[in-house]
Amino acid sequence: MAGESTRLEVRNLTKLFYGVPAIDSVDFDLRGGEIHGLLGENGAGKSTLCSVLSGLYKPDSGTVSLNGHDVAFRSPLDASNHGIGMVYQHFRLVDSFTVAQNIVLGLPKDQRPRSMRQVQSMVRDLAEEFGLHVDPSASIWQLSVGEQQRVEILKQLFRGAKILILDEPTAVLAAQETDRLFEAVSTMVDKGHGVVLVSHKMAETMEYTDRITVLRRGKNAGSIETRDTTPTQVARMMFGDSNAAERTTFDTAHEIGEPVLSLSGVSVMGDHGLHAVDDASFVVRRGQVVGVAGVAGNGQRELQEAIAGLRPLVGGSITIADTDCTNAGPKATMRAGLAYVPEDRLGVGLAPGLPLEHNIALKSYDRAPYSRRGVLSEGEIEKTMNQLVEDFDVRGNRPGMRVSLMSGGNLQKAILARELNEDHEVLLAAAPTRGLDMAAAEAIRSHIVDERSDQRGVLVFSEDLDEIVHMSDVIIVMFKGHIVGSFERDELDLDLIGLLMTGSGVTRQDTVVSDEVPTDS
Amino acid sequence: MMGRIRVIPRGFAGPGVRFGVPFGALIVALLLGAIILAIAGNDPFEAYSTMFDASLNGWSSITRTLALATPLILTGLAAAVAFQMRVYNIGGEGQLYLGAIAASYVGLALPATTPIVLMLGAMLLAGATAGALWALLAAVPKAYFNADEIITTLMLNFVALSLMNWLIFGSRSFWRDPRRPVPSGKRLPENAVLPSLSGRMHVGIIIAVVAAILLWWLLRKTSWGFQIRTIGDSPRAARYAGMGVRSKTMAVLALSGALAAMAGFSEVSGVTKGLEPVALTSNIGFTGIIIAVVARNNPLGVVPVSVFLAAITTSGSRLQGIGINVQVVLLLQGLIFLTVTAGEFFVMNRISLSPSNVTEAADGTPPSANEIAEATA
Amino acid sequence: MNDSVLILSIASAIVAATPILFAALGEIITNRSGVMNLGIEGMMLMGGVIGFWAGNNTGSLTIALIAGGLGGVSLALIHAVLAVTLRVDQTVSGLSLVIVGSGLSSFIGTSGEPSLLSARNGVEVTSLFPSALRDLPGVGPILFGHDIVVYTGVLAVIGATYVLNRTPRGLALRAVGEDPAAADAAGISVVRMRYIATAIGGFGAGVGGAYLTVAIVGTWQNGLTAGIGWIAVALVILAGWRPWLALFGALAFGGLNGLGFTLQLAQVNVPSDFLKMMPFIAAYLVVILVSASPNRARRLAAPAALAQPYSREDR
Q: Which domains occur in chain C, in start order?
């Protein structure tokens, strides 16, 4: 039953960064007593909308009104005082403090309880009331991720939040913890609180929400009662209509050869002690582009790092061009024939404070032609750099300039140029065209596709489904660390792929998917 | 909030900035020194001109300055090579003492008739090895356990100091001269002394300058140096490129220790001609750190900066003669260090007074990188 | 004879420990906020020379100590600007202040006619408790024989422990040092906390230096502290950033100073140079042990964000 007093209304909200709208004339509303799902791809604007609601950003235009009164929050604390609390995906908890200490941290003087003992009993009462059981005297580092999340929620409830925004809360949770979370959420909602559930998981959204609002590229893409819609419809709102027909025809008449990158049963640990990749197996063949579709955060980064030798495997094996590279380290993996264009350009792929010449030689500095018997051949390096700059149209570089000054597009071209210039058998490219303008993106894509003609294999990760569809011979879908589907180019079913990306449907490619609300996989 | 003043990271620091800012910092330091001198009732002009006269005016002044610059170049190089990789070797003092101890041992232990080149070569080698090993005491824990090298190298300084003091003041050790009642070190034989070039300046200066050139070549022109520079800029990129960070950490610290120890060899063989703790503890190690920071870790730059700092330091006694507080020398060193350190901020950033066109958070928080990526994706 | 030597040793250890204790307590506060201050040695020297000068001119112990404290604060604020606002390398910044402190204090000490070098101590330090208590056998000299500053030191330990662990301010301070992003998110001003904590550190070092000069040594010499500031830095790490452990550590160091004479009288021959090495070797080993074992690291852990500059853009 909807709560009488709590009502949040957002009308025509626009927020710009560097003149570009992150959200554009967005409408949203929340009633007390309901769970409202907010769905969308990465970059759709969900985070920005939540940041405005929680007081982190001031909107450029539009209104936010709470219980009928227009509000303009000056800070997150201001929003908190108005009863809006946000639980972030990356917790803001001090590891070495206790639960009680974290909850009480930064409370203004008039809200502070008289003693820690009082805090502990208040926390226990709250926990009891909402089913968010956690020991107030435990230290954060001792708690599981699910328990830590409960602390974050309690923090907001302690400050009197009536509206809670949960940002991807189940991203790091195991199955039972997810159940417990939603039990607590329903308790909250029964008591009249309003909850915004930001997610890109279809199953939980369909099961737990009362309404769904979808954002796409910063704008509203649809708002509907959950019981009135289907996963397919929602997926279409999220990812757009299937435009399979508009595929630029690539030269499909090329030979597909033997496997050049094989993964068998690969499992990799994430940073939080859970498996980030679980039993992944697939093959990339010479002359083939394999695209991995999936929403960011489902194990792609960890899988890339494992293939590149930067993260250890806890199970399975990886073979590159007939060489076993399981846990062989980055250098051996390179020598076996892997070229890697990582997602983190300035943090991993390049040394940001050093100039372009240096970065061109980053991987083969100890080999000809870049060095001979330990001495750098600066002339050769410069020659290669100039050649690559010309071939790949890398702009914005001045001699001696640190590469961090170059634009994202040119950085990407530079890294790609370097990687393709080395001897390699397979190219691993992560988010290759993210942040690039059309021309640069197209150039990069064509370089990638050219690899096929040279009888190399390519493994591409991208959040942009359109791009994957354009480039790939085979598309595999990743969700929660599993490979949940595999499609040849001529049997693409974009609706199905969309569903698989959000966790609906079934896990193997040859089983029929149902359009009804599925159980959590 | 902060109004219209914006701090913008500077992407490209041209030579104008890279030389101009430290140079400007030096000027500021000299100005601050002048102010303090004036407050103390001294005439800054008189002070500075006396300093110039004592250190750079005339051949004997110059040789005296260069004599002091010799160990400073070496400890400056020691600090520079380590700091280049963002490994903080604060143990230059201690490594210098170890170098002095080892070199003087060899000089006293080998027969006095050993040919001079062999003798000096052996002393140099012994000193450098001792310094490298002393540095490894901090390097190995750093490489394997990420033990804070600032504290470990610093602590080892004091241990080395006590060790050296004990050898001369606290015991009748091999190093100590039994014939003299006042504790002092045995005199090195003639063949163990670095020949004098002119006045106080000795062959050590050549060793130091050669070391500077070699180190520059090593860092800029070899694939080993390439790795060091990469790790110093971005350890993650270095890992991605397959560079062995652990082994480089130990190698660089060992090299750093060896260089500082060579300063010890140079002093013990060229100046004190025996193990004399009092003369060796004149902050040469710490001053080397100042030099490295001012020279922005460039080995070639270390040489002129060392000469500059040596010039400031040698003029001390002359200042006393005209009634100026000799401590101004130490004070100036500190001010230079301070201003150059602060100046680094201006090398990395520039100040802009124009309003920005990026909207910020309600409380002035600029958007995070993620959010910008999101917005411009 | 043995008894009174032992008692005197302990009593003098307590006095010798006091300067280290004040400096260490200040550094604990600074470190707990996430700032590394290697400049303590320089700040103690500044405190020493300014405290001595103030004591000379006023004859008051209190004024001498406060003046010394303020001398330390002045250098500490420079460090705060460099480390917190300009976000330069905190190691380098701290070291530069050691040298500035040495140079400036030596300069002040040898300035003027007559300089402070030849000045006699203007401050008279008296015992706090009446002689009746002081002359009690055994415990008298140890417990009751000291001046007010020593007892203030102990009170400071109690106070620091209480504030750090039981007050909201202390919690906020520790949060800034453990996870400045979380503290910032909770509405705490990271910059303000760090400035205040650094200033407190400078004050502690300055008071320690002033007490050393005025109450223990009695004259001014350039470079008077002779490495005590560095011992305080090491002590803070050895003590795991806990005030009570810092107290015991300071006593240990103080005791080591007098231990040499005691051992000599007891005809145990340990060279004093080796005794001087002990604290540094101990610190070296503890740092390695702590780094090598992940579990123990939890308990003796440094503030997680120590020496890392914080800026909101780097979220």
A: 2-117+138-314 (1.10.3470)
